[in-house]
Amino acid sequence: MKKITKLNRNIFLKGILPIFFILSLIFSPIQVSAEVAETEINGELINASSEFLRDLDFETWQLVAYKSPLFADKLILRVIGYPGNLRIDHPTSLKVESGRKQWLLDDKTLLNVELANDGRQAAAEFDLDKLIKNLDKNRPLRLSLSGVFSELPVPPFVVKEWRSMDKI
Fold first, then answer.
1. Fewer Cβ close by (within 10 Å): the C or N end of the chain?
2. What is the pLDDT of residues 47-85, one digit of tens each?
């Protein structure tokens, strides 16, 4: 009788328990919530998604997505260079790629008086609305800005935040 009990326990620990663990991971995925918070933009508190990402040259960039009252509540992406000494010429379209799909986002920087008058010229704004309306999944993106960075990977959780901003 003891041999059967030990055998059953070994089968449970080595065979059945790992299967239950794997099935629990599959059927109850980890949930990631959007990191949308109030941020001061253009002198107003606005809900925004703000993330710091590194390009392939290990330069850090801040990406801020927000609905802009300046542009009829369209979703705008602000790209900010650090340490702040980089100049971005305007207008310059932001190229976005995902797999074989490609988009060019319009430069809206000079239409924002605050950014147009900023002597550092280390920030640019782009119309993110067109891109977000064309995405049906939280897929990774690759951004490139001519003369500034050649590839800035954007992970799916950031895309999810941007897509959630469209619903606010």
1. N
2. 789 999 999 999 999 999 999 888 788 999 999 887 655
By the 8 A CB rule, do 153 and 51 touch? no
pLDDT tens by residue, 121-147:
788 999 999 899 999 899 999 999 988
What b-and-e string marks burial along 9-35, b requiring 16 or more CB atoms within 10 Å of the CB? eeeeeeeeeeeeeeeeeeeeeeeeebe
Report the residue count for the chain: 168
User: What residue segments make up the domains of the chain, in order of their start?
Assistant: 1-30, 36-166
Fold of 36-166: Immunoglobulin-like (2.60.40)
Question: Cα separation of 50 and 26, whole Å?
Answer: 30
